[in-house]
Design goal:
The protein is mostly helical and about 475 residues long. It is built from 18 helices and 2 strands. Strands 1-2 form a two-stranded antiparallel ribbon. Strand 1 and strand 2 form a beta hairpin. The longest helix has about 45 residues. The protein is globular and about 65 Å long. It starts with 6 loop residues before the first strand and ends in a 5-residue tail after the last helix.
């Protein structure tokens, strides 16, 4: 990294705050346990029954565990790379694809943050009808107030924000664990058996499983949380440990929430529940207090996840700018190590998407699926980098050449993410290109600041593909072939 990349206009960058294993693990758990877990029963019941859900979680759990192992291995093998997903894509496939990984990961967090505000407002909307499903004008205004309140809180520093996140992570796990326990107490085997085969769905079992894939991606987003904060880790080995520990904890929780719900209500009734569907399931089991209990827990959970995701988004922009892949103004950090310009850009894009999704027929589902689709390309590039690292010697790799086990894990993670792209279908990929292509302006700005050639021949090919995809996406939206 150049000297220019280690400082900003205000002078030398402040030293990074050092985070222990527990805090890194809390960042992973806090990133994954957010809005998604509270929507799981309804999302799964819309697509499949118990059998399909078990298969889906087996596939998702195995695939995401492979990704977790990839991030664990890369954190140890390439300790020179910071910011995880972005850094691995750049090291493996060049600056332009690295830029796309950074932008895609950042944009996915911004869109994901919108789902949090929508779900909070939808939850409160059950007692305050003016908020509707979280997409009314009043809901957007209140969400915007919360968004900017968090901006000012995070500006105070990484240590303060992560300390809040650690406390909130513990608090938000409590209602989810209690939900699973209460659901088991009120579990009805006859209802569970009736939901087993997914009789309400006419598609094949494969199509049912495929329909759940984006939902599983969304709830697992954040598995790379410790990797993103690798520059803040007290010990480099803690990055991988936190990734695997965090993943295994939330996987058990997510699968349990989904499966036990099938023993409370018929599948068709679960599918028809207002989001958050976990609240409706618990209300069916224990009464009105169950919905209130889950609603309070959801608000705490979502606000904690919003904090963690906003921190990670700003961190990616900061490191990309320090590596000269984003404009220089994004390098700046204040006296307490917070990248304020990057944080401001994150809040601005979240605000824009928040307003835009209010025009969608189903703002929550659309934002959730778009978040998943945007994250898939960065994940795919990171997994492919692990394969590339194992296929050839690299003097920068610590501990010698990657083992056969690590290579096999990289191949499995690559195949899994490629399958997810297929499962996403063309709609969300095209909409993703609509966001990716214009973002190239930031890449061009960075190259001009350095007085470099804008694109290499290979990068021009990538540019052409992204622009073609964006044009096709705009045409499809305008013609009504796809809709928000």
């Amino acid at each position: 990294m150049s000297q220019a990349a280690t400082s900003d206009a205000a002078g030398p960058a402040p030293p990074a705050a050092k985070l222990p294993l527990l805090t890194l693990t809390a960042l992973v758990v806090g990133s994954m346990v957010g809005a998604g877990v509270f929507s799981l029963p309804g999302r799964f019941a819309e697509e499949t029954g118990v059998a399909g859900a078990l298969i889906a979680w087996a596939i998702a759990g195995t695939g995401m565990l492979m990704l977790a192992f990839v991030f664990q291995s890369l954190a140890v093998r390439r300790p020179d790379l910071d910011a995880g997903v972005y850094a691995y894509a750049k090291a493996g496939f060049g600056e332009y694809l690295g830029f796309f990984a950074a932008f895609g990961y950042w944009a996915s967090t911004c869109v994901g943050n919108v789902t949090y505000w929508v779900l909070i407002m939808s939850t409160v909307g059950s007692i305050w009808p003016e908020l509707g499903d979280g997409d009314t004008a009043l809901a957007v205004v209140l969400s915007s107030i919360g968004l900017w309140a968090f901006f000012w809180t995070i500006r105070r520093g990484v240590k303060e924000a992560t300390a809040i996140n650690k406390a909130v992570t513990v608090a938000k796990l409590v209602p989810i664990v209690i939900f699973v326990v209460l659901a088991l107490v009120h579990f009805r085997p006859s209802v569970f058996a009736g939901n087993f085969g997914g009789a309400d769905h006419t598609g094949s079992l494969f199509s049912q499983v495929r329909g759940t894939m984006l939902a599983t991606v969304f709830v697992f987003l954040g598995v790379e949380g410790a990797s993103v904060y690798s520059r803040h880790a007290r010990r480099r080995s803690d990055v991988g440990r936190a990734t695997v520990l965090g993943f295994l904890s939330v996987f058990a929780l997510f699968a349990s929430v989904t499966i036990v719900s099938y023993g409370i209500m018929p599948m068709a009734e679960i599918a028809g529940l207002r989001q958050p569907s976990v609240a409706g399931v618990l209300e069916s089991a224990v009464g009105t207090w169950g919905r209130v209990f889950i609603s309070v827990g959801l608000i705490v959970s979502v606000l904690g996840a919003y904090l963690a995701w906003t921190l990670m988004a700003a961190e990616v922009l900061l490191v990309a700018a320090k590596d000269d892949d984003m404009p220089r103004f994004l390098r700046r950090a204040n006296a307490v190590d917070v990248p304020v310009p990057a944080l401001l850009m994150t809040s601005l894009l979240t605000q824009v998407v928040l307003i835009a999704t209010s025009f969608s027929d189903d703002a929550f589902t659309f934002a959730l699926n778009l978040t998943s689709a945007l994250s898939l390309i960065p994940y795919l590039l990171a997994a492919a980098f692990a394969v590339r690292l194992g296929a050839r010697d690299d003097p920068r790799t610590e501990g010698g050449r990657t083992s056969r086990r690590e290579l096999a894990v990289g191949v499995a993670a690559t195949l899994y993410t490629a399958f997810l792209l297929y499962a996403a279908g063309p709609k969300f990929l095209l909409v993703s290109f609509v966001l990716y292509a214009p973002a190239t302006a930031l890449f061009v700005m960075a190259r001009r600041e350095q007085g470099r050639r804008l694109f290499s021949p290979g990068e021009l090919v990538v540019l052409a593909v992204s622009v073609a995809g964006a044009v096709l996406g705009v045409v499809a939206l305008a013609a009504g072939w796809i809709s928000l």
